[in-house]
Design brief:
Blueprint: E1 9-13, H1 17-26, E2 30-33, H2 51-63, E3 67-72, H3 82-94, E4 98-101, H4 104-113, E5 118-121, H5 130-140, E6 144-146, H6 153-162, E7 166-174, H7 185-190, E8 206-211, E9 214-219, E10 222-227, E11 242-245, E12 248-251, E13 258-260, H8 265-270, E14 275-278, H9 285-307, H10 318-327, E15 333-334
Parallel strand pairs: 1-2, 1-14, 2-3, 3-4, 4-5, 5-6, 6-7, 7-14, 13-15
Antiparallel strand pairs: 7-13, 8-9, 9-10, 11-12
Helix pairs in contact: 1-2, 1-9, 3-4, 9-10
Length: 343
């Protein structure tokens, strides 16, 4: 069973060396990053790190007492596992504090060749029960699990009461509503997905077109949505498209909004969540800096209130909401599965 912590670790995204430094300076306890290849699930052109940049980033973070987590969270190609194994060796040599892994082959290689290196179970592994997490702990020695964004608060609490590893949850950012690590929708439309190529809805497959009926967004030639001229537009993914279903045109699965758990931060802390993760390695360094600064202030405020024995004193500041609202996908927020009345 995990031990509750009053101040969870703030884990910020870094798609570039500039973003890493800004996240550290804005108060992140740890940053997570990926290599410039298909071993990470944000394999977009122009993003991620080469070896000299990782070395510099690790040195910058460690000099300030912060951690660097390396995401090796795609699934190994059976015909050629070498790039993933080399990435594990590289992360260990460069001084990474932990690996974020989804594939058991990657975890087994790290366990056998770098036993001192911490392993975090990626959200891509889709572990939504304490039994699943226990399997990875027993066989591969994981020390933390990142939960998919499909669990209610009570389900997270139940998992925490029975888990024997640290638990990390997403606090803010683009909301994946499918079974993370198992989604095939992007592959269906484009031939690429986070699972194999490290990219969901690759920009090369995205098209925006002005038409008399409105602005159309397409993915791999498929019409995802059609917008009025002044209507907020989300990035086109199949799971967040509007479709004609049963004679009604609406978001069939989920709206293009950002997860924002500021309102339930004290509850997440009270049940023992060990780390709050911010999504956005594909976003700009300015975005990373702003969301990290907001969440640093929020976590500190909630921890101060809890330490005083008055967690009810915590309030979501209007300035925090305004900043995150401006940066949210479609400029809309949601608590996601945390507030699903049907669960």
């Amino acid at each position: 069973m995990t031990i509750p912590h009053t101040r969870p670790e703030l884990v910020a995204p870094a798609g570039s060396l500039r973003a890493l430094k800004l996240a550290v300076d804005a108060g992140a306890d740890a940053v997570y990053l990926g290599l410039r290849n298909a071993t990470n699930a944000r394999n977009f052109a122009g993003l991620n790190f080469d070896l000299p940049q990782i070395r510099e980033g690790v040195a910058y973070a460690h000099a300030r007492g912060r951690k660097v987590l390396v995401a090796l969270n795609t699934f190994v190609r059976a015909a050629d596992p070498k790039p993933w194994y080399e990435a594990v060796d590289c992360a260990a040599e460069l001084g990474a504090d932990a690996l974020i892994c989804a594939d058991v082959a990657v975890m087994a290689y790290a366990r056998d060749h770098h036993p001192a290196l911490r392993l975090h179970l990626s959200v891509q592994a889709s572990a939504t029960s304490h039994e699943a997490i226990a399997f990875y702990r027993q066989h591969y020695g994981i020390q933390r699990a990142v939960l998919p964004r499909v669990l209610t608060l009570s389900q997270v609490g139940h998992l925490l009461r029975n888990a024997e590893v640290e638990i990390e949850v997403f606090g803010f950012g683009s909301l994946c509503v499918m079974v993370e690590g198992r989604c095939a929708l992007s592959s269906y439309a484009t031939g690429q997905s986070p699972n194999n190529a490290g990219v969901c809805s690759p920009p090369s497959a995205v098209r925006w077109t002005d038409t008399p009926a409105g602005v159309e967004s397409r993915l791999g030639g498929l019409l995802i949505d059609r917008y009025a001229p002044d209507e907020p537009r989300g990035y086109p993914t199949l799971c967040k498209g509007r479709f004609d279903v049963g004679g009604r045109r609406d978001y069939a699965i989920e709206e293009p909004t950002s997860l924002n758990t500021l309102a339930i931060l004290p509850e997440l802390m009270a049940i023992g969540v060990r780390a709050i993760k911010l999504e956005g390695r594909q976003r700009s360094p300015a975005y990373v800096e702003q969301i990290t600064r907001v969440w640093r202030q929020a976590i500190d405020a909630a921890a101060t209130a809890a330490a005083a024995g008055a967690p009810g004193r915590y309030r979501v500041e209007p300035a925090w909401t305004a900043t995150l609202g401006h940066l949210a996908e479609g400029q809309q927020h949601t608590l996601g599965a945390y507030e699903r009345p049907w669960q």
